[in-house]
Amino acid sequence: MKLSLFGFVYCVSRALTGFFLFCFAMGIPNAPAQINIVLPADVAIEPDEELAIDSPDHASHGQAFKKTQDTLAFLTGDLLAGNVLGIDITKGIHFRHPDVEDPILFSLKNLHEITFTHRQATETQTTLMMAQLTNGDRISGKILRMDSDQLIFKTRYAGEVAILRSALHQLVPVSAGHLIYSGPGDRADWVFQQTGLPNNWMFADGVMRSAGAQGSAGKQLPAMPDKFKIDMEVAWRGMPYIQIHLMSQDARNPHASSWTLMIHGDNFRMYRQGGMGHFDMGNAQVSGFQAKQKAKLSIRVDKSDKRIVLMVDDVLAHQWQDPNGFQTGGDNLVFQAQQSMPYALSNLTVSVWDGKMAPPSASADSSDLLELVNGDRISGKLLRIDGPTLKFHNDFTAFELPLDRVASIHFDKTQQTTARLQENDIEARIFGRDRLTLALVSLTPENLEGHSENLGTLRVQSPYLERLGFNLYDARKKSLREVADF
Fold it and tell me: Quick one: pLDDT at residue 115?
């Protein structure tokens, strides 16, 4: 017998869609992720000229989701494509599926994430500053003013935002090209080469953690300048065994060509591999490093001087020279994990370096700290910011300084607080680098409304939303949140 392709596919897809949606709505965890259909030998599929392959109503469920659709990801691992119509915190998420005539209402209790692939506002704004908060949130915008209580930011997606001063960890100017990258972000920002556990790298609360199985995580950066530095905080258990591949040509295969810093115990070895051939640049020892269990690393590269500098906790550890230079280098940064040696990375930044070595004396542990573009560091008290000018007080005097001379501002750790966790907290990712943790109130096609102790009540324009993360403190996400143990 003969059967129309359109008729067969349409009927089967409708039946399967209804089955899957029933399972989702009822919360059935063991619904099959895939069903294979085998046609009888006497059934011939006859092409139907009216079949619209590009229509969402008739698209195969085995194909990649359309770029114009939103994606729901559930804690069970299931995915569903369609369009988010809105969220009522008391009822759930209203969702339209292309194969169902009426909107569907899903509970939020099993929802992991929403990805908005079709929403991105076209409005642009010159970003002057990135505020990094104590809970890992990042907000970019223009500073209007700041006093002893709060910082007033003008953002492109939420208008004026008031941030508690005690919630500020760091301010970094980004408009002049000083900041190249701030992360580590989340899994979507990286590519992976796994040889151990399938989810070797975990991301939560602004921390990237290896699970103790071999594998690498790489990121392609913008074209790197002649002088740049990579700053990070690293934590580990037991003996540190970490490989950091600089200027790699391949984010998935750093061994093909890169300059590699291998950290093993108290030993730091730098070597070149691939490209111009293997070259051991030498070993340095940092006494007591293994016992620290946590450290701040700064790796600085001066291509013109053929030099790589390592700072450990703001102290010069070693300098290496490659006589052949870095002409074959790429723009990828890769971190490699080793078997049973887990470690965690946080506060990762890549920025322009002026080639100067900053003095190690100033610290932000019990005072505010200014880092200037010329490499100077000044500790004291940030009194206020008025537009393009800040006023600062140190042990000797009070002075004013243009903001465009500032490379970063670190805030007194003894005065910092962290917002308390709230039951309805979500993680909102904005197109770009921004991240907000808010207790969800509602979501409409126009605005997302939420609130936090750091920011008060906030309304974010929905077209700027890239992703929303739900059930942040659910036990099913516990493995991702274990990074806090570092």
Answer: 87
